[in-house]
Structure formats: structure tokens, C-alpha cells
């Protein structure tokens, strides 16, 4: 049985102003089993231990090398680069500004 892994670079969360934790690549595993609800307490859980594993790497190539070295079936997602729109503060007060 091949373990399916996902390699990606996480995006910045909406609650995050800085770019920390967005430069590293992450390898995590796809779940093998569906999550089940405990009938007594109502908590959701699974017996799949790979769902708790999340490994970070400095580069995409390091993550791919790790997956190949451990015979993991992996899928690489492209990194989303942010696009900056540079604006001047003075443009808010320009005479010909469209409102």
C-alpha cells in the first residue's frame, strides 16, 4: 500500500499580517480512514496516525527527496506567489482621481 502525501507551501492566513511560516514547504499525509464521531462524547477522531504528522522543509526539492527516499506516493502543489500593487499615498488625494 502506497501512502499518499501532499507537498505544498502554505498560504498566509487571513488572521496573519506577516509572512512567517509561509516560506517553508510542508509534507502532510492524506487520511487513510474517514473520521468517526464518538457516540458517548461526540468528539470526532480517527485511528489514522498519519493525519497528525506534518513535516516542514526548507525547499521543495528537500520535500520531494524525502518522499522518494521513503517510497511515498506524493503530489506537489504549485506555490501561490503574492502580487503586489504598488500605490502612493498621495494618489488618494489626486485631482483627477475617480471616486
Automatic annotation (TrEMBL):
Gene3D superfamilies: atu1810 like domain. GO terms for cellular component: membrane. Coiled coil: none annotated. InterPro entries: NADH_UbQ_FeS_4_mit-like (IPR006885), NDUFS4-like_sf (IPR038532). It holds the Pfam family NDUS4. It comes from the Bacteria. One of its GO terms (biological process) is electron transport chain. The keyword Chloroplast does not apply. It is found in: Membrane. Keywords: Electron transport, Membrane, Respiratory chain, Transit peptide, Transport. This is ETC complex I subunit-like protein.
